Amino acid sequence: MMVSITHSWKNACRLDSILAAARKGLRLWVAVCFAMFGALCLTLMPLTASAAEPTVELQNLKVEQSEGAVYASLQWNFQLPAPLEDALYKGVALYFVAEVEVTRERWYFYDKKLLSAQRHMRLSYLPLTRRWRVNVASQPFSSAGLGMSLGQSYDNLEDALQSIRRIAQWNIGNASDLEPETKQNISISYKLDLTQLPRPMQMGAAGQSDWNIAWNKTQRLVLETSK
């Protein structure tokens, strides 16, 4: 009986050793694959650390009230750096995010948020048709797909870029949520969202100025009334 128990115990220890070695080998294999994928992604982004950051400017801003809603029209101006254009041609989609927030000043506490809206834009190149695609959604795109988004195709990159530089008649909330008798501010931000890139590319893009497309500003809200 004692011999049988000892033999079973030795077999169990031997099985534990085999499983531990298998787990270690699997972890090593995953790490190697991740490193190879990261190296492959980084080849899409030539090193341009010495390049100047892209200049982003807000050229036009109009906020108006119409039929119980508040609409914002905005026009940004920026050029897409060559490494980003190269990444697009190699199949990497770029994600841009525009955010608008209207707040009411409060001296005794944090400012009160009155309105808030986001617009997520996905820019991609379709090599089979040699056309450009822009998808727009109010929520971040998920890894499962484009979700509830509107899409439009363009014949060239400049037309596609123009569609994400300009936002017209964007419904950012209900006019009834505003407090016109108080001091109201509007905060606007626009950026290339690196968090939606594949993880290895996020690590590579974080240290490159070419990938730093961003603009933000807070100013007094000037609300126009639509005629």
Your description of this structure?
The protein has 227 residues and is of the alpha+beta class. The chain contains four helices and ten strands, in the order H-E-E-H-E-E-E-E-H-E-E-H-E-E. The strands form two sheets. It has a six-stranded antiparallel β-sheet. Strands 7-2-1-10 form a four-stranded mixed β-sheet. A hairpin with a 7-residue loop joins strand 3 (94-104) and strand 4. The longest helix is centred in the N-terminal third of the chain and has 41 residues, at 2-42. It is globular. The relative contact order is 0.20.
Give a short summary of the structure.
The protein has about 230 residues and is α+β, with helices and mostly antiparallel strands.
In total, the number of domains comes to 2
Q: How many H/I helical runs? A: 4
Which of globular, elongated, flat, extended, rod-shaped describes the shape? Answer: globular
Judged by helices, strands and strand pairing, the structural class is alpha+beta
- Beta-strand portion reads 35-45%
Sheet with most strands: strand arrangement: 6-5-4-3-8-9
Oligomer: single chain
Detail the poorly predicted runs. 1-7, 29-50
Mean pLDDT: 81
Tell me the radius of gyration.
26 Å
Task: Give the SSE string.
Answer: HEEHEEEEHEEHEE
Q: What distance lies between the first and last C-alpha atoms, to the nearest angstrom? A: 97 Å
The helix content, as a percent range, equals: 25-40%
Major sheet description: 6 strands, antiparallel
Q: How many β strands by DSSP?
A: 10
Note the topology.
Blueprint: H1 2-42, E1 57-66, E2 69-77, H2 82-89, E3 94-104, E4 112-126, E5 131-137, E6 150-154, H3 157-165, E7 166-174, E8 184-192, H4 199-205, E9 214-220, E10 223-225
